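Hi support team,

I'm opening this ticket because the web form for multi-chain structure prediction keeps timing out on my end. I have pasted the exact lines I submitted so you can reproduce it. The total is 668 residues across two entries, so I didn't expect it to be a heavy job. Is there a limit I'm missing, or should I split the entries? Thanks in advance, R.K.
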Amino acid sequence: MEHFNVFASKLVPGRELFSPGHKACQGCAPALAMRYLLKAAGPNTIIANATGCMEIISSAYPDIAWGVPWIHVAFENAAAVASGIEAGIKVLQRKGKLAPGKINVIAIGGDGGTFDIGLQALSGMLERGHEVLYLCYDNEAYMNTGIQRSSATPMFSSTTTSPAGKKIPGQATGKKDLAGIAAAHNVGYVATACTSYPFDFMAKVKTAFETPGSKLIHIFAPCPTGWRSAPNEIIKLGRLAVQTGIFPLYEYKGGQYHMSMELPFLKPIKSYMKSQGRYRHLSEEQIAMVQENVTARYEWLQKLAAASQEG
Amino acid sequence: MAKLLMKGAEAIGEAAIRAGCTAYFAYPITPQSEVAEYLSKRLAEVGGTFVQAESEVAAAQMVYGAAGAGVRVFTTSSSPGVSLMAETMSYMAGSELPAVFVNIMRAGPGLGGILPCQSDYNQATRGAGHGDYSFMIIAPSTVQELADWMIRAFPLSEKYRNPVMIVGDGLIAQMMEPVDFDAVKAEEMPDVEGWATTGAKNRPRNLINSLFLDPLKLEEFNHHLKEKYERMAREEVRYENYMMDDEPELVCVAYGTTARIVKTAIDVLRAEGLKIGLIRPITLLPFPKDILRAESEKPHVKGFAVVEMSNGQMLDDVKWATLERKPVSFFSRNGGIVPNPEETVEFLRKEYERTQK
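Hello R.K., no limit was hit. The queue was backed up. Here is the completed structure from your submission:
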């Protein structure tokens, strides 16, 4: 709980390495993720950024929001390009052409660029164990191209390619377990985070860089444009996603699971869904079904964490 | 039927349904994601299938699978996505499978921009993938023509058992124009029993394959493909003549979006008495080479003017087709900028005056 009740801006470096003035929508939580990420990673960082919202809003020539070395890569390749950066640094340092010392290499992809088209490159990077932090900012659909479903889109969510209507209830399948996929590669560190809990997220970025090998942080980042919710609600929505158990915060470290936040009880998911246009069509029955899945998954994670503690 | 006011991207989807195609695989990319959005609603109403793939590689390979199973199928994408489909294109041509691909081109290279461009001409006409193969490439210039060619493209691809690609740009895909979907009659899919992998009960199995380890067999197969492409070149060339009846002295060559602007510019200059015409290739491949070559031989033709939204890709084909018997001049805007009529008029006037010297 140590990082959840803190709200002291003095604890965070004032310097903005992800500068304001970029082209994100009002209330964009992924842009907050970029800002916090760089506050935690610091200037000695190289970023490989896949095509997606964060790349488009931050880098349209001649403007750039990135205060650190940054490379744009095709949609499917952030992890592969980051692997190349890390391997290149290694060889330069080995040959004495680059001063020794740690350079933070970060690959960034959205949910489409990570869960879908970038999964092959991500798996390769994790399997080879490159010293890279992969950050997936998850706003639960292809928002940049106009709100098409991805395999991170939650069940029943209405998107432009999973439109809710008489024949289809919205997205037909549930969200892929990205953190689970990363953990299955037996990497040193995997964590979930949420833009509504910046201190927790920044602490996780620091832990990631203290852990050798590949690491992945999956950050939940609400999108008012794609979710059809109010821009001033994104912090509240992120908190509710965590507090309802829809997006549990946990870490996987050295083979052990730890819940990041002890929840005395799960808030009903309806409190989270009701202000979002993408869920407006849901029947009570469908909400109950989602509630059941959410509770079951949360309890399963709790069991993993409890077993880790016992073990 | 009454005309419907429709966005180009939606007309692509509706025309495919009218053509009898109810299988569509795609991956989102601007400026044509509206095709998938339209069909994700519309295909459910007609009992069709839309699968959103996890990448363009997968979307194209789903097309390969469905085409191999003898299903009328298509996909749509835009430039960077089409690059990812290149491998499949080569395999489909090599396995002689019919399907329709649509490339709503955007400005490149790399991620480039999302605005209209014609810089994938070489990618389309030279074959994006590896090997000795070609697609048939069709470039409509209005939403009506886009719908018409969507309906024609399926039977064409089935006739040759070779994929057909329709190319447009953001202007054609995003613009709304009236469309009559009955302007072209849809054709039934021919029998696929002889080659499709539809199950081998009570008949020998069919195989879909493009591996030939015996070089003589592969050479023979490539000669067979060549004959097919030569037949396309004989039978399928389509183009439009605009103001070509009164012995124009300057012949413009432009396709798709730029052809619309060139027509406007020609109208302006015709009012001033300048004899300028346009040959608009509708099939970029097979290219109307013989038509342009014949023009180049006519004594009244003093020069050719190519207008393109690229650094000059079709330009090479015009030079080759005309053997540069007459000067071939070139005007382009690039990077997502569509040439405006004024600058096109200025260019053509200057070129016309040059032919008078």
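A quick check on our side: The first strand of chain A starts at residue 45 and ends at 50. Let us know if the file doesn't open in your viewer.
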